[in-house]
Amino acid sequence: MNEQIKALQAEIDAFVISNEGELDSFRNQFVGRKSRLASLFDELKNVPAENRREVGQALNGLKNSAETKFEEAQEAFAGNTADFEVPSDLTVYNPISQGSLHPLTKVRARILEIFNRMGFSVSDGPEIETDFYNFTALNFPANHPAREMQDTFFIEKGAGEIQDDVLLRTHTSNVQIRLMQHQKPPIRSVMPGRVYRNEAISARAHCLFHQVEGLYVDEQVSFKDLKDTLYHFAKEMFGKDTKVRFRPSYFPFTEPSAEMDITCLLCKGDGCNVCKGAGWVEIAGAGMVDPNVLENVGIDSKKYNGFAFGMGIERITMLKYQIKDLRLFTENDVRFLKQFN
Ligand code: PHE
């Protein structure tokens, strides 16, 4: 036993610790609970009783010297920054990569900014809505086929039983109604938000997407006001060379109704895959607020009139950044998201 102690002491004394790896190896061999030194302690019980005290003291001495050597080396490394290079210009050194805003967030902010400058406030409303706010008050007659155009998700009461009058809003037009119930004209507001439709997910459709709706109610609002507002918006959003056109359309809550197209940004109107050869892409639905809608919320439709419009934020983002697949917005692939720094 004494021989072994001497041999180990010699090894400990001779061990050179010059880097972190050697420090670890020293600890494993001589300091830890599974070290060679620890196993010598285990053998102490086999030493004849009369020698045990002496051998025990020698072992303790060995242990102390190993621990002291280990602690000294550890301390020396703690203060050693030799392998960490301090950059000469600290303002350049930025090891943390920064996140960025989602493209939809950026485009929504830009849309709101453009309308804010034209005097539109921002309003918000619930995503879980009743039939009244999503359809009835907006002049969708009961059982009218226009309700089916919107592929509504109805909410279950429990145990699979569908509650007909509670649903996920299919458009942000519910906020028009809530706003007009609470505010007297003049009203000039935009309403951004998430909307839901029961559609199969593909490159061109999703069961959830985002809209910004606008509402202007005052005395003597004209269709020209609507066109000018949207025309100005298109130029601000897509550049001053952008052309727009209005086509007649139908929505239950506006009369007359229109859809607005802009010149395709990819082919500049020549015709390509994105605009399906037309040279134009639709970006908004719009129209003069139907007098029935005003009456439904207690606004005198003889005194007041207004216009409304609605657009999809995804569609505008896809055109602006030439994104061809709607699914990219919700997949959270950092390779996609990183491009919008
Ligand atoms: N709410 C309509 C839709 O989602 C868009 C729209 C809003 C049309 C306002 C006209 C006026 O399809």
TrEMBL record:
InterPro entries membership: aa-tRNA-synth_II, aa-tRNA-synth_II/BPL/LPL, Phe-tRNA-synth_IIc_asu, Phe-tRNA_ligase_II_N, Phe_tRNA_ligase_alpha1_bac, Phenylalanyl-tRNA_Synthase, tRNA-bd_arm
- Tell me which residues bind Mg(2+): 255
Q: How is the cofactor bound?
A: Binds 2 magnesium ions per tetramer.
- Gene Ontology cellular-component terms listed: cytoplasm
Which terms does the UniProt entry file under GO BP?
phenylalanyl-tRNA aminoacylation
Q: Which UniProt keywords apply?
A: Aminoacyl-tRNA synthetase, ATP-binding, Cytoplasm, Ligase, Magnesium, Metal-binding, Nucleotide-binding, Protein biosynthesis
EC top class, as a word: ligase
Q: Record's Pfam families? A: Phe_tRNA-synt_N, tRNA-synt_2d
Q: What is its EC number?
A: 6.1.1.20
Q: Which cofactor(s) are needed, names only?
A: Mg(2+)
Please give the superkingdom of this protein's source. Bacteria
Occurrences of domain Aminoacyl-transfer RNA synthetases class-II family profile (ranges) = 105-339
Record flagged with keyword Aminoacyl-tRNA synthetase: yes
Q: Where in the cell is it found?
A: Cytoplasm
Q: What's a single GO MF annotation on this record?
A: tRNA binding
- Catalytic activity, per the record? tRNA(Phe) + L-phenylalanine + ATP = L-phenylalanyl-tRNA(Phe) + AMP + diphosphate + H(+)
Quaternary structure note: Tetramer of two alpha and two beta subunits.
Q: Which family does it belong to?
A: Belongs to the class-II aminoacyl-tRNA synthetase family. Phe-tRNA synthetase alpha subunit type 1 subfamily.
What is the protein named? Phenylalanine--tRNA ligase alpha subunit
**Phylogenetic classification of the source organism:** Bacteria, Pseudomonadati, Bacteroidota, Cytophagia, Cytophagales
